[in-house]
Design goal:
The chain is mostly helical. It has a single domain (7-211, 221-488), classed as MFS general substrate transporter like domains (Growth Hormone, Chain: A, Up-down Bundle), CATH 1.20.1250. Helix content is 79%, strand content 0%. It is built from 19 helices and no strands. It has helices at 7-14, 16-39, 45-72, 82-101, 111-118, 122-145, 148-152, 158-170, 172-184, 188-209, 224-256, 262-293, 301-330, 337-366, 369-387, 392-420, 426-432, 434-458, 462-480. Helix 1 (7-14) crosses helix 8 (158-170) and helix 12 (262-293) crosses helix 19. It starts with 6 loop residues before the first helix and ends in a 14-residue tail after the last helix. 59% of the residues are buried.
Length: 494
């Protein structure tokens, strides 16, 4: 029986999310697009950004559930979760340095060896290596961190604690306002230092102030078969989504070789993109989660539908933010796109914060599902407005609607997930839920990036409008699939 927790407890249980979110919030939407424009040609930048994200997130999809599973069984005297957080963060610092060093390889003599072999420059190869390794170490820590709320927070306070978690995930958007001009100025090492410092500080706060009860005896069931299942889960999901990318590319090449009007190409490829993205999510998650969970999958079908709902939403919102810097640069023709992107993220965060805190509170009182449905609908409206945006003020209004939707979703959806996982295996199940976290980028960016480049070659800027329309469809589908998830009675306060 857990004791009632105060705000101080909720803060320290979740503070490491702040470090993780500073890292993800700077690297994914701001730093990676900036570096990609330095390392690859303009007409392939969306495709190569997608390659970075797919490669890194495939590693995240594999490592995070493994880390969660092994932390479930850890008998370390510091507790089940904190040793993984400590060592994951230490390795983060090493791999961040590799990412920073990538700019030193621009125009390197190694290009003569690496470019014929891999098809891209030595600088891009170093960036890819650093990012993949960083995803491995960071998700080692995150896989364990995800178990702290189910471990330490009473069921009737998980909405509140999930709201605090979501708040820490949002706050880095304000810090990014200061980092955007730093990146535009090319000060990559300072950016990497800020990320590393934030991870180190929040890790230390977690290690000092969070108290875990050590597991006295390991569960009897072994890890070998479950580890193989997670490998199979990752291979299956990535295989399905990369097959979808091949279908889209093949379809684009076929249409390009025929006398097909631009409007018809947009209609065919846009509808195909929506079907392929949604289909790869449904097929990849359904079979991937069943492989990962194993024999218990049938009794946990609401958990699988929760992952599908989460993946549909995150694929849309994450990809919109991920491509926003290129949209601002190519469509709005803004001279300092990294700075304007971080300003946009900060304004979005202003609407995220109250919606996260309000949703966390309401989720414990009126239930999770109606809030998640509202999040999908308001985010659809924000995305449709983005399609017609040709000035930064219009983009900002669209971002405000997305902020309300994303904030509502982050708190209420995570609270629902913590209700659905088996308490004794929270680390493993929430690690498997990274099908949504990592899979969002693999699906949304992995398929959306090549599509954006395909249509941008037809007409500059057209690709972003097509993929944003597809993301609006994913938001709507996230509402539809809620019908497969019953509202847990225990999620409501008595």
């Amino acid at each position: 029986m857990h004791k009632t927790l105060g705000w101080r407890d909720h803060i320290f249980i979740n503070v490491y999310w702040l470090g993780l979110s500073i890292s993800a919030g700077v690297i994914t939407p701001v730093l990676l697009p900036y570096l990609v424009t330095l390392f690859v040609s303009h007409d392939q930048k969306n495709t190569y950004l997608a390659l970075l994200r797919v490669a890194g997130l495939a590693v995240a999809m594999l490592v995070q559930p493994l880390a969660g599973m092994y932390s479930d069984r850890s008998t370390h005297r510091w507790g089940r979760r904190r040793p993984f957080i400590l060592w994951g963060t230490i390795l983060d610092l090493v791999f961040l340095a590799i990412i920073g060093a990538s700019v030193l390889f621009i125009g390197s003599a190694l290009d003569q060896t690496i470019r014929p072999l891999l098809g891209f420059s030595a600088a891009f190869a170093v960036l890819l290596l650093g990012l993949v390794l960083l995803q491995a170490s960071s998700n080692t820590a995150q896989g364990a961190q995800q178990g702290l709320i189910p471990d330490l927070v009473p069921e009737n306070q998980r909405g509140t604690s999930s709201g605090v978690k979501s708040l820490f995930e949002i706050l880095p958007s304000f810090l990014a306002v200061f980092i955007g001009p730093i990146i535009d100025a090319g000060r990559i090492w300072l950016t990497v230092g800020i990320i590393g410092g934030s991870l180190s500080l929040t890790m230390l706060l977690t290690m000092i102030f969070v108290r875990e009860e050590p597991l006295r005896e390991k569960p009897k069931r072994g890890n070998a078969s479950r580890s193989l299942r997670i490998f199979a889960l990752t291979a299956l999901f990535v295989g399905v989504t990369q097959g979808a990318v091949w279908l889209i590319r093949s379809g684009g090449l076929f249409l390009s070789s025929r006398d097909v009007s631009t409007d018809l190409q947009i209609a065919i490829m846009g509808l195909s993109g929506l079907i392929v993205m949604a289909g790869s999510i449904l097929v990849g998650v359904y079979f991937g989660a069943r492989v990962g969970i194993g024999e218990d999958a049938r009794s946990n079908s609401p958990f699988i539908w929760w992952i599908i709902n989460r993946l549909l939403f995150l694929a849309a919102v994450g990809s919109i933010l991920g491509f926003s810097q290129f949209f601002i640069s190519d469509v709005l023709r803004v001279e300092n796109p990294a700075t304007m992107t971080t300003i946009l993220l900060a304004i979005v965060a202003l609407f995220l914060i109250p919606s996260v805190l309000g949703s966390g509170y309401l989720a414990d009182r009126i239930g999770r599902k109606r809030l998640i449905a509202f999040a999908g609908l308001i985010s659809t409206a924000g995305t449709l407005l983005l399609l017609f945006s040709r000035t930064m003020p219009m983009v900002i209004v669209s971002g405000c609607l997305l902020g309300v939707g994303a904030g509502t979703f982050m708190a209420s959806n995570w609270a629902l997930g913590t209700d659905l996982v088996p308490p004794k295996e929270a680390g493993r199940y929430l690690g498997i839920s990274n099908l949504a976290g990592a899979g969002a980028g693999i699906v949304g960016a992995g398929i959306g990036g090549p599509m954006a480049d395909f249509f941008n070659r037809i007409r500059p800027g057209l690709g972003y409008l097509v993929i944003f329309a597809i993301y609006a469809g994913l938001f709507l589908l996230s509402v539809v699939v809620l019908s497969g998830i019953p509202e847990p009675n225990k999620s409501l306060s008595q």
